[in-house]
Design brief:
The protein is of the alpha+beta class. It has helices at residues 2-17, 53-63; strands spanning 67-71, 85-90, 96-101. It has a 3-stranded mixed beta sheet. It starts with a helix and ends with a strand.
Length: 102
């Protein structure tokens, strides 16, 4: 139950930050134009870093995705494909293990 609350809090915080961050790129790459469609190529450099609400929002912007979510081990999720969603899979300490769209 605590995991669900943690995800809800992280999602809420990330949502509160929408519009507060300017789209910048740490890799020198320009962010993908906001089409609403996710492109994981722009956020593959996240592997190994720890996710925060700020990182989640920056990743959403850089990938061009309309929405983003963080999945920790054991989280229960729906499996429908959504081309507008960035999914960041982490370990227990919120270090990024994988990024994908859908």
């Amino acid at each position: 139950m605590q995991t669900i609350h943690s995800i809800a809090l992280l999602t809420f915080c990330a949502g509160a930050l929408i519009g507060c961050q300017s789209p910048t790129s740490d890799t020198g790459r320009s962010p993908q134009p906001s089409s609403g469609l996710c492109n994981v190529e722009y956020v593959e450099d996240l592997i190994g870093i720890q996710v925060s609400p700020e990182i989640l929002d920056q990743a959403r912007i850089k990938s061009g995705a309309a929405i983003a979510r963080v999945l920790r081990p054991g989280d229960i999720v729906t499996l429908e494909y959504n081309a507008q969603r960035l999914t960041i899979s982490t370990d227990e300490t919120l270090r990024v293990k994988r990024v994908n769209c859908g």
